[in-house]
Amino acid sequence: ISTSPTVTDVANVSPEYSKRAQVTTPGKNTNTSITGVTSVYSIIHKVSIAEGVFITDSDNSRQAKVAVIGPTTASNLFGLGVDPLGQSIRIQGQSFKVVGVTVSKGGAGFGNQDDVVYVPLSTAQKILFGATSLTSIAVEAKSSDVMVAAQDQIGYVLLDKHKIASPASADFTIISQNEILSTVSTITGTFRLPSECFSMVP
Fold first, then answer.
1. Of 37-41, 58-62, 143-147, minimum mean pLDDT range
2. DSSP symbols for the chain
3. For 171-180, what is the mean pLDDT?
4. Lower CB count within 10 Å: N or C terminus of the chain?
């Protein structure tokens, strides 16, 4: 999508892999969403950092065991008044160093964007979950005026890559931000994308 010469109306592309898992610290644990991301995720999803840094391209290239956590996750794992930066958490039996904490977005229950752990996409796929696919791709169009054109451009690229002749047989779904807001989404992080963004899910 990022390099296709026929996709001309896209500003940013965020490949993502999300799965719920148990996260622990000594004496505490929580079941939360683990989202494998690249550095672009924070741009498209408007994730701000309260402390530390977000996941970097270098983290992905070396499959680093680093994590950025939401404030709810931080409270659940470390308690109030404890700075989680530099601390270790365990995911799927693997130790991760906390390098960042996000600014609160508010929310509660399933899909709470404050109750999440971000790790490098490469680490999530190859070390944590053994995945070769993505659970979603978030895309930012260059403007809201070219949303439909961007969706069409990407749709035809994916049909070609998946070797599918007819759009009616597509094995993916492209969902605009308005559609996401009006339906129940199971993809963590797609609730508050800007109006020029949309997601693709298998």
1. 143-147
2. --S-TT--SEEEEEEEEEEEEEEEETTEEEEEEEEEE-TTHHHHTT--EEEE----HHHHHTT--EEEE-HHHHHHHH-TT---TT-EEEETTEEEEEEEEEPP----STT-TTSEEEEEHHHIIIIIS--SS-SEEEEEESSGGGHHHHHHHHHHHHHHHTT-S-GGG-SSEEEEHHHHHHS---STT-SS--TTEEEEE-
3. 76
4. C
